[in-house]
Amino acid sequence: MVTTRLPSAGFSITIRIAVTADASSIGRLTTCVGEAGAIVTALDVVDSDPTKVLVDLTCDTADAAHADQVVKQLEEQDGVDVRKVSDRTFLLHLGGKIEVSSKVALRNRDELSRAYTPGVARVCMAIAENPADARRLTIKRNTVAVVSDGSAVLGLGNIGPAAAMPVMEGKAALFKRFGGVDAWPVVLDTQDTDEIVAIVKAIAPAYGGINLEDIAAPRCFEIEARLREMLDIPVFHDDQHGTAICVLAALTNAMRVVGKRMEDVKVVVSGAGAAGTAIMKLLMRQGVGDIIAYDRKGALHRGMPDLNESMQWLADHTNKDNYSGDLPGAIVGADVFIGVSAPNLLTGDDIAKMADRSIVFAMANPDPEVDPREARKHAAIVATGRSDQPNQINNVLAFPGVFRGMLDAAAEEFTEEMALAAARAIADVVGEDKLNPTVIIPSVFDPKVTPAVAAAIRAVVKGMPVPANPAALPESELDKAPDTTF
Fold first, then answer.
1. Most buried among 172, 259, 358, 461, by the most CB within 10 A?
2. What pLDDT was estimated at residue 264?
């Protein structure tokens, strides 16, 4: 099955072009780019003389090959001289995306004596006498380790720790931007479960939380479980729990739009790895009627041979009718399809066979399990993981607020109750007056999301009732910052 990929800012290029100085030259450039299937996002005149104009033309393309095609078509135009092509994504990553900055001024000997020796020794001894004070007197109170072995990076697979760094840097930048949390990439040159557990345990004293990232299933399940047992700080696997929280939030609002109840619907989930497993477990905790889990092996069902422990659990606890066919067959009559797997597994005709007022969350990136344009012809609600499509389901809605709340409340673990509370908080940010088929989940840039999620998490940690709509509370009631006195 072949589909036309959509242009994306992830493949944005800037082309420096010298073109003849006539009235139609600029128009010819934009027409050429449009005919090549790209989207012009900016055009700036850099220089000119009586015969030529030098312009920087920026456009979104679908992939690297498409970008090359756009450039080639420009080069073939009369009077056009392509001088330079810059990939804007690579430019953004030059030198990395994060840095360390000091919170204190070191302008003279007096300040140096308090920040470092001899004054720092007093603080060291205070912590030695009472280790719990490390949360208040060091970066531990607001710092998270983003830990990966590079074995399951985005949709790229096992590319190793060095190649995983740009993603982990990006994660750290998102922590800071959306949650005010200081996070740091910790990429490990090992994929041995015992070694990973030992390393994370050893570095844990410096951090207030551990965010496991892009570690392949099923090892990620054991690593998380063992670290939770060992550590007195929260361990959160974002590929599992962040995804599950956001899917539940989006599904909660989608149900409101189509007028269905969780306990009445049949859900098909494509992908039984880390994300899919966590999604299904959280949906079951929320009381979803029935789930069919589908993976490379087929629909997981009782009696299926050669399943790992995680898939065996799903086979035993889902799929009431023990369906064993293919994915298109599984979604016949289903109310909800959730994809966290691979591109182009379904067609619009497959979606047409789902139940009335169906819901499709096709979240494989960059290309979804079904073309969203085709899915919208038949489904009542369509969501993807793409930022250039409506209803983007993005983990950044969850993890900054979850960690903000856990750090503020000095939580020692992440729990399922926190996941449910965070999902409700995210869903409630979209008020009834804004809810519709193209708005079932808030924008990642909605400033109410992180405070709402953090308030819900703090309430769970403190054993207090979770606010009905944390996003609607005044900032003073959100208890945004922890006590900083000593």
1. 358
2. 96
At 244, is the secondary structure helix, strand, or coil?
Answer: helix
Annotated catalytic, 103?
no
Pairing of strands 359-362, 182-187: unpaired
Let me know the angle formed at the C-alpha of 402 by 398 and 403, rounded to the nearest 5 degrees.
125
The helix/strand/coil state of 156 is: coil
Place of tokens 């007028």: 259
Give, for 56, the enclosing helix (H) or strand (E).
strand 52-61
Structure tokens at 57: 């033309």
Residue type for position 478: L
Catalytic: which of 52, 72, 84, 116? 116
Going by DSSP bridges, is the β-strand pair 39-48/52-61 parallel, antiparallel, or unpaired? antiparallel
Pick from 30, 41, 126: nearest CA to 77: 30
- Identify the residue with better confidence: 222 or 478: 222
Is residue 208 pLDDT above 50, yes or no? yes
User: Would you state the structure tokens that stand for residue 260, as one six-digit string?
Assistant: 């269905």
Amino acid at 55: V
Question: Do residues 340 and 326 lie in contact, with contact meaning Cβ atoms separated by under 8 Å?
Answer: no
Instruction: Provide the pLDDT for residue 58.
Output: 97
CB 125 within 8 A of CB 113: no
Q: How far apart are CA 48 and CA 51, in angstroms?
A: 8
Q: Return the amino acid letter for 362.
A: A
Structure tokens belonging to residue 43: 């055009």
pTM value is: 0.88
Q: Show the tokens assigned to 353.
A: 């066979």
DSSP state for residue 18 in the 8-state scheme: E
H or E element in which residue 212 lies: strand 209-212
DSSP string, 278-327: HHHHHHHHTT-SEEEEEETTEE--TT-SS--HHHHHHHHHS-TT---S-H
Residues 6+ apart with CB under 8 A from 374: 347, 348, 351
Is the distance from CB of 8 to CB of 73 less than 8 angstroms? Answer: no
| Residue 485 token pair | 């006195």
User: 116 catalytic, yes or no?
Assistant: yes
Tokens 């092996």 label which residue? 297
Q: Out of 140, 171, 266, 281, which one is annotated catalytic? A: 171
| Cα dihedral 208, 214, 219, 225 in deg (nearest 10) | 20
Query: Predicted confidence band at 480 (pLDDT cuts at 50, 70, 90)?
Result: very low
